[in-house]
Design brief:
Elements (H helix, E strand, L loop, with lengths): L1 H15 L9 H5 L13 H4 L9 E10 L4 E11 L2 E13 L16 E16 L12 E17 L4 E19 L2 E8 L4 E4 L4 E2 L4 E10 L4 E6 L2 E6 L6 E8 L2 E10 L2 E8 L5 E11 L3 H7 L6
Length: 304
């Protein structure tokens, strides 16, 4: 545990000063945003927290979205323990204000609001039920997870000073069911409760959003497909491991990208073909543990 904590802390501190992104990593973006059913890496923290219940070990990642005038940061880490998997994520976003001075007179230009800042802390937990329940293999595997999201909004002026404009608390409840090694179903009920407190004392209720997706593997796991609502994507590993080629469709927009992984260290790139072209880059580290305990747990208990 101490080794894992040090690994995650050092990785996040070193990489967070250099990179930035939105609420979706480079790999999900390259696959058209269809990740609720797949949810098999650290990106699951933000898209389907139940997926981290299947992660065997520790993972961490940082992503960046390259866009002029805007900054986005996505940082996530997962730690597996004897009582389940815990994840922590950070989403930071900033964008320029286009009409912040309507009808307002400022003493000097330094007091003029120029940028809107949004920050969200995501605390995740998931547990694969098969870890502590005797379940026959033919019944598949089920993981349940949840997110607690703490958000804050601020406005910054030209002097670099900022003032809070509101806060929000949200929660997600999710599940991932894998009937076998080649099929996965995912469900995420986002914003189960949503209360935002603004400076004027008002509350903002945005309501719940349900996401449902399905994913699978074919051709001896060299090709992965994923579908969710109007989003779909595929990932092909021509050499089995090490290199991944991706493409997808995010509604009306095409996506593409690739990933390179060497000894647990990975670099991912994604391209989103919007009116204004968007590029994504992610860096990740994964340390996986052996799965002997899972095999032993099922040995002699399966009904085939």
């Amino acid at each position: 545990m101490r080794k894992s904590a040090v690994f995650l802390a050092l990785f996040l501190i070193i990489t967070s000063v250099a990179l930035a992104q939105e609420n979706m990593g480079a790999r999900p973006i390259a696959m058209g945003g269809a990740f609720t059913g797949l949810a098999d890496d650290v990106n699951a923290i933000f898209l389907n927290p139940a997926g981290i219940g299947y992660i065997r070990g520790e993972m961490a990642s940082v992503s960046t979205k390259i866009s002029e005038g805007k900054e986005y940061t996505l940082i996530g880490g997962v730690e597996r323990t004897a009582i389940g998997s815990f994840g922590i994520g950070y989403i930071g976003a900033s964008k320029p204000l286009e009409s912040a001075d309507d009808g307002v007179v400022y003493v000097d230009d330094g007091n003029k609001p120029v940028k809107e800042l949004n920050q969200t802390l995501v605390l995740s937990y998931a547990r694969e039920l098969n870890d502590f329940m005797v379940v026959p293999r033919f019944m598949g595997r089920l993981s349940l997870g949840t997110n607690l999201k703490l958000s804050s909004m601020r406005v910054a002026n030209a002097k670099g000073l900022s003032e809070p404009t509101g806060s929000a608390v949200n929660a997600d409840v999710a599940a991932v069911f894998r009937p076998n090694d080649d099929l996965s179903w995912g469900f995420n009920l986002k914003n189960c409760f949503d209360r935002a407190d603004a400076e004027d004392g008002s509350e903002d209720q945005s309501g719940m959003v349900a996401a449902f997706g399905v994913s699978g593997n074919v051709f001896d796991k060299t090709l992965t497909w994923s579908v969710e609502d109007r989003c779909m994507g595929v990932e092909w590993k021509p050499m089995g491991q090490g290199l991944a080629l991706r493409m997808g469709k995010d509604g009306d927009y095409n996506t593409a990208g690739f990933g390179i992984s060497i000894s647990g260290f990975g670099i991912d790139y994604a391209y989103l073909e919007k009116e204004e072209k968007v590029h994504y880059v992610a860096v990740s580290i994964a340390i996986e543990r052996e799965q002997k305990e899972a095999d032993m747990r099922q040995a002699g208990l399966s009904l085939q």
